[in-house]
Design a protein that fits this description.
The protein is α+β, with helices and mostly antiparallel strands. Helices cover 33% and strands 20% of the residues.
C-alpha cells in the first residue's frame, strides 16, 4: 500500500470511527470468538460475511453512517485503476422487501463492478497492519470489543468509500454493506486486543451466578471424557484403579466410560453449597473427588461451566450404564470445597470392579432392557399402550369411544391434531391398542369395559414425565398407580406382574411398566407391531364421552 493512500485512510478513520454506534461495534469486535458462518455455494466472501451478521447490526450501522459518510470528503490517490469495467448485457437478480438495503446492494456489486469487493478487502487488510492505524485498548470488555470492532469497520468504510467513488459506484448502501462484510471477515482472523482476555474474565466473574445446571453431549476418546479448563485434557497413564470411575488431573477431572469413542450424556450442576446427602438411586457408581482449578471455567463442552475463578473444588461423579453403553449417562455435581480424600458412595457396575481389581458381580437380568427400543420410536414422547384379552377388536374400539365401522387413514389422523385416535392390532384373542400422544386407555371406564371378558393392562406416559400403570380383570380395575410413587395392589396377579421390577429406581420406568403389561396379559408390545400398524395404515377417531371436541 502506498504511503499516500495509507495516510489518507489514517486521516479519515477517527472521524468515521466516531460515527459508529457502540452496540453493533461490540458485536463486530467479538467475531474472533464466534463460529465461522456457513458458506453458500458460489457466494462471494464479502456477502457471506455480511449475511452472517445480525440484521439489526447492519441496519444500525447503515442508519448511523449513511448521511455523514455521504458528506465526508476523503482526498486519496487513485487505487482502482486495475478494476474491470462494468460488464455489458443483462442478468437476473432476486431480492425481497425484507432484505436489508445494504445486503441487497452488496450482493449486486460483484455483478456490476467485478473485483471491487476483493480490492476493498485487500486494501483494508493492509491498512489494518499499518503502524499509523493502531488503537490502544482500555476499559471493560464491552468497551474494548466496541473499540476493536469500530476501528476495523472504520478502516473498511474509509477504504470502501475511496474505491467505490473512484470506480463510479458511490451508493452509500453498497459502501456500508461491503465495508461491513469486509470488516466482519477480517475481524474473524485478527487477534483480540491486549487486555481483552483479562476484561472478559472480569465480565464473566461479575456475571456468574450460582447455582448453574444443564446437560450436554460430551465427546469420549479412548474411554475417557474430561471436565477441564480451556478444553485441554490429560488422559494418558490413568488406570482408575483407586475408585474405578474418575481421577483428578491438572486443571480438572477425567472420567472413565464404557463407551470407547463417541458421545455420552452428561448433566452438570454447579452448586452454591455442598449437597446435603449423596443421591445414589438410579446410579451405579458415585465418587467424590477434589481438584484445583488454575483459572476457572472448566467444562465438558456445553454451556455450563464451573466458576470463572481459580480455587479448590469438589466434584461428585455419578455414572450409570457403563456396562451397557446404549444407556450410559453421567451427572457431575461441583462445589467449592477444600481438598479432601476421595469418597465412594456407590460401586456396583462390572467395569468399576474390573478397574479396581475386584471380582465382577454377576450380570443382572433387566427385563425392561427389551423395551428400550420404545425410547427410539415415535412413541418416545407420549403414548398409551393397552393390551386386552378375551374381546374382539371391534368391541375394544367401541369401548374406547370410537366406531369400528369408520376407519380413517392413519396419516390423516396423525396430522389432524383434533380428536384423539387409536390404532389396533387383532392378534387371535389379544388386541393391542396404541394411542400416540393419547390417554383414553388410562380411563377407568375404558379399562372396565375392555376387561369384561378377560384381562386388560395399560401403560401411559407423557412429555411431562408423568407415567401411570393400570391392571384390570373381569370388568374390575385391580390397580392404578404411578410407578415409583403409588402403592400397587396386593392382588396376586399384579404382584406377579411387578416381581423383580425396581420401580423405585426412576430409570426405565416406562419400559418396566410395559414388562408388567406383558406379564399380566401374556402379550407385549414389539417393534414389528408399529410396523404392522403402519402397514395397515388405518386408525379410529375417538369421539365418545370425555373426548375433546
Amino acid at each position: 500500500m502506498g504511503d499516500d493512500f495509507a495516510a489518507a485512510v489514517a486521516a479519515a478513520v477517527p472521524a468515521v470511527r466516531a460515527m459508529i454506534p457502540a452496540a453493533p461495534a461490540a458485536v463486530l469486535g467479538r467475531l474472533r470468538c464466534t463460529p465461522e458462518p456457513h458458506r453458500l455455494r458460489d457466494e462471494p466472501d464479502v456477502v457471506r460475511s455480511l449475511r452472517s451478521l445480525p440484521s439489526w447490526v447492519v441496519e444500525r450501522v447503515h442508519g448511523a453512517v449513511e448521511l455523514p459518510l455521504a458528506r465526508l470528503e476523503i482526498p486519496a490517490p487513485p487505487v482502482a485503476a486495475g478494476l474491470k469495467p462494468p460488464p455489458d448485457g443483462t442478468f437476473a437478480f432476486i431480492t425481497s422487501d425484507s432484505e436489508a438495503e445494504a445486503l441487497r446492494e452488496t450482493r449486486l456489486l460483484p455483478r456490476t463492478r467485478p473485483g471491487l469487493p476483493e480490492l476493498v478487502a485487500d486494501l483494508t487488510a493492509r491498512a489494518a497492519d499499518d503502524d499509523r492505524l493502531t488503537l490502544a485498548s482500555e476499559g471493560d470488555e464491552a468497551a474494548i470489543a466496541a473499540a476493536h470492532g469500530a476501528h476495523h469497520l472504520a478502516i473498511a468504510l474509509v477504504t470502501a468509500t475511496i474505491v467505490a467513488r473512484e470506480a463510479g459506484e458511490p451508493s452509500t448502501a453498497a459502501i456500508v454493506g461491503t465495508a461491513l462484510g469486509v470488516a466482519a471477515s477480517l475481524l474473524r482472523t485478527r487477534p483480540m486486543p491486549g487486555g481483552y482476555a483479562a476484561a472478559l474474565r472480569e465480565k464473566e466473574r461479575a456475571e456468574y451466578r450460582l447455582p448453574q445446571h444443564g446437560s450436554t453431549s460430551a465427546e469420549v476418546r479412548d474411554h475417557v471424557f474430561a471436565l477441564t479448563e480451556n478444553g485441554a485434557r490429560e488422559t494418558v497413564g490413568h488406570g482408575f484403579a483407586e475408585n474405578g470411575l474418575a481421577e483428578a488431573v491438572d486443571g480438572g477431572v477425567v472420567v472413565r466410560t464404557g463407551t470407547q469413542n463417541g458421545h455420552v450424556r452428561v448433566g452438570i450442576r454447579v452448586l452454591a453449597e455442598p449437597p446435603a446427602t449423596a443421591e445414589t438411586l438410579g446410579w451405579e457408581e458415585v465418587v467424590d473427588l477434589s481438584w484445583r482449578a488454575e483459572h476457572g471455567s472448566a467444562g465438558v463442552g456445553g454451556s455450563v461451566t464451573t466458576p470463572p475463578w481459580p480455587g479448590d473444588y469438589r466434584v461428585r461423579v455419578h455414572a450409570y450404564g457403563r456396562d451397557e453403553p446404549e444407556t450410559e449417562g453421567y451427572d457431575l455435581w461441583i462445589w467449592v470445597a477444600p481438598p479432601g480424600p476421595p469418597v465412594v458412595h456407590a460401586r456396583a457396575d462390572r467395569l468399576g470392579h474390573r478397574l479396581r481389581g475386584e471380582p465382577e458381580p454377576p450380570v443382572v437380568d433387566r427385563p425392561e432392557a427389551r423395551y428400550r427400543w420404545v425410547d427410539r420410536s415415535r412413541l418416545t414422547v407420549a403414548a398409551t399402550v393397552t393390551v386386552v384379552t378375551g374381546l374382539p377388536a371391534e368391541d375394544v374400539i367401541r369401548a374406547f369411544g370410537a366406531d369400528p365401522a369408520h376407519p380413517e387413514p392413519l396419516e390423516d389422523l396423525r396430522e389432524a391434531y383434533a380428536d384423539p385416535w387409536l390404532a389396533v392390532l387383532d392378534l387371535d384373542g389379544v388386541v393391542v391398542a396404541i394411542e400416540e400422544n393419547g390417554y383414553h386407555g388410562s380411563h377407568t371406564e375404558v379399562l372396565t369395559a375392555v376387561s369384561r371378558a378377560g384381562r386388560a393392562a395399560s401403560m401411559f406416559w407423557n412429555v411431562n414425565g408423568v407415567r401411570r400403570l393400570f391392571f384390570a380383570r373381569a370388568g374390575e380395575v385391580l390397580a392404578s398407580f404411578e410407578p415409583g410413587l403409588g402403592e400397587p395392589s396386593a392382588e396376586d396377579e399384579v404382584v406377579a406382574a411387578l416381581a423383580g421390577l425396581d420401580l423405585e429406581n426412576y430409570r426405565d420406568r416406562t419400559e418396566k411398566g410395559l414388562v408388567a403389561v406383558e406379564r399380566f396379559t401374556g402379550r407385549g408390545l414389539y417393534p414389528e407391531d408399529l410396523e404392522d400398524i403402519d402397514r395397515l395404515a388405518v386408525a379410529y377417531r375417538i369421539t365418545g364421552p370425555g373426548s375433546p371436541r
